[in-house]
Amino acid sequence: MANDVKRLKAHLAEVYDLECAGSVLGWDQQTQMPPGGGAQRANVLSTLSRLAHHRFASRATERLLDAAESEVASLPDDHDDRCLVRHTRREYERSRKLPDAFVAAWTQDATLSNEVWRVARKANDFAAFAPHLAKMVEYARRAADYYGWEAHPYDALLEGYEPGMTSADVERVFAGLRTEQVALARAIAEQPSPRVDFLSREYPLEAQRRVGLAVAEAFGYDLSRGRLDIAPHPFETSFGRDDVRITTRYSLDEPTESLYATWHETGHALYEQNIAPELARTPLSGGCSLVFHESQSRMWENIVGRSRGFCEYAFPLLQDAFPDALADVTPDDWYRGVNRVRPSLIRVEADEVTYNLHVMLRFDLERALVEGRLSVADLPNAWRAKMEEYLGVTPPDDRDGVMQDSHWSGGSIGYFPTYALGNVMAAQIYETVTRQRPALEEEIGRGEFSGLRDWLTEAIYRHGRKFTPRELALKVNGAPLDSAPYLRYLKRKYTEIYNL
Fold first, then answer.
1. Sign of CA dihedral 293, 299, 305, 310
2. What residues form DSSP beta bridges with 229?
3. Closest C-alpha among 334, 103, 369 to residue 198
4. Distance (Å, rounded) from C-alpha 141 to C-alpha 147?
5. SS3 248
6. What is the C-alpha to C-alpha distance for residues 484 and 221, in angstroms, rounded to an integer?
7. How far apart are CA 132 and CA 114, in angstroms?
8. Are 244 and 273 in contact (CB under 8 A)?
9. How far is 278 from 183, CA to CA, in rounded Å?
10. N vs C: which end of the chain shows fewer Cβ within 10 Å?
């Protein structure tokens, strides 16, 4: 390895280690930390974020980048070192715009805000949470101003999750999806609902855990480098490819909540566990973008996990785990039941046809908050109005309304569009895979997932952040993000289920 790149990597490795230390404490906050530990945890995370940011956004990083850029100039465009320097330069130019003190304060207040949200949601007490949420919105606005923007302040926030995409791009995609998905949902609403009585019976929690984890392992989740825990809002986090953790939540009479959350987070984990080891402890060790990451969680959860072939494979496992609850149920009953379409209050429990509508309403509200057109005090009423407009349902309270997601409490504003765009990318990638592996559906029906996983590892996972989202989309699919495969997937699947 050339000396200048070697020195840059050593510098970046220390930044990576600091960020991982913060991530470990963030995981602990959500899964293990005692309720009284929030204030101290906020102090520690604030310090770690300040140190990591200061080191990365320093003149030392700039000098090392300047030297390394000359050294890698003659390397191929896709060489690891050239990609590292290119990506690090982009991230450095963005990060250096934020003052250290601002990053530290934002982290500290976000940590405290998340603790307040956790308590306030249980108590259905939006008034207690509102001042903290207002702080998060103000931090987002200030960050957008620090970063700079042209058409819309939201673009500066979205860039941190999906580089190269603007809110105008998102709205163009959403406009087409909204029309088609609303029409499909209305057509389905006129048809008889599949049988779902068995999905509200008693399903022992430990059995839910065992079968959820067994399928995660079948998908390829390596438990020697991972673990499953409980959290109020399921998530995946990684501290390098060899320590990738997932969480879920359980309900005694709603088994699909834990099972599909586990498999959703497994999709994220497969991405992280299969990044090339050569990229370890560098800024390239992570998913390309949130759209690509969400494409994997949604693919394994839905396109695979709710497919007919998968349900036929998994049903004997489920019946062994829950013999009483599923005694009078067939694999076809299970397949149709877990694909029932019905407007619902909770995003993470929404069906494939209506899920994107949940994301669209959050996107609308986030932009209004960032612009200042909507105040936090008015957010609960605005949320209820949007739910009625988009889904035809009205939340009975704020717990299952405006406070249901943890993202805003932690300052993640600009994140939500990637969920719906991830659905779009998932279908586009899956269509590409099936063209190259025509027997894929049969493989899934036999419980053989290595073919899909290995294809995804070679095409996507191993590259980490070497490429921009657009570059990777072109490499994988030969085209940029396109909603047509997703709409084809929905129409084909639900036309058959509902005899449209």
1. negative
2. 247
3. 334
4. 10
5. strand
6. 30
7. 9
8. yes
9. 47
10. N
For residue 86, the cross-strand partners are: none
Residue 47 burial by CB count (10 A; 0-12/13-18/19+): exposed, middle or buried?
Answer: middle
Query: How far is residue 44's CA from residue 27's CA, in Å, rounded to a whole number?
Result: 14
User: For residues 241-254, b (16+ Cβ closer than 10 Å) or e, as one string?
Assistant: bebbbbbbebeeeb
pLDDT tens figures, 283-339? 999 999 999 999 999 999 999 999 999 999 999 999 999 999 999 999 999 999 999
Instruction: Tell me which DSSP letter residue 378 carries.
Output: G
Six-digit token string for 211: 């079968």
Give the residue among 45, 49, 107, 170 at the shortest CA–CA distance from 411: 107
**Residues marked as catalytic:** 265
| Spans of the chain, pLDDT less than 70 | 1
Question: To which residue do tokens 């717990």 refer?
Answer: 399
Among 234, 370, 120, 400, CA closest to 383: 400
Calpha distance 339→304 (Å, rounded): 12
Measured between alpha carbons, how far is 187 from 341 in angstroms, rounded to an integer? 11
DSSP letter assigned to residue 250: -
Those residues whose C-beta lies under 8 Å from the C-beta of residue 472, and which sit 6 or more positions away, are 288, 292, 460, 463
What's the one-letter identity of residue 109? D
Per-residue pLDDT, 348 = 87
Q: Using CA atoms, how far apart are residues 266 and 289, in angstroms rounded to an integer?
A: 17
Closest to 57 in 3D by CA, of 164, 124, 147: 147
What separation, in Å, do the N-terminal and C-terminal C-alpha atoms of the chain show? 60
Which residue in this structure is represented by tokens 């304060």?
Answer: 105
At how many degrees (to 10) do helices 3-31 and 80-95 cross?
A: 60
Identify the bridge partners of residue 244 per DSSP, sorted by sequence position. 226, 238
For residue 39 the two structure tokens come to 């204030």
Predicted local distance difference test score (pLDDT) of residue 1: 53
CA-based angle 245:119:134, to the nearest 5? 95
The amino acid at 33: M
Dihedral, CA of residue 395, residue 401, residue 402 and residue 408, to nearest 10 = -160
Rg of the chain, C-alpha, whole Å: 22
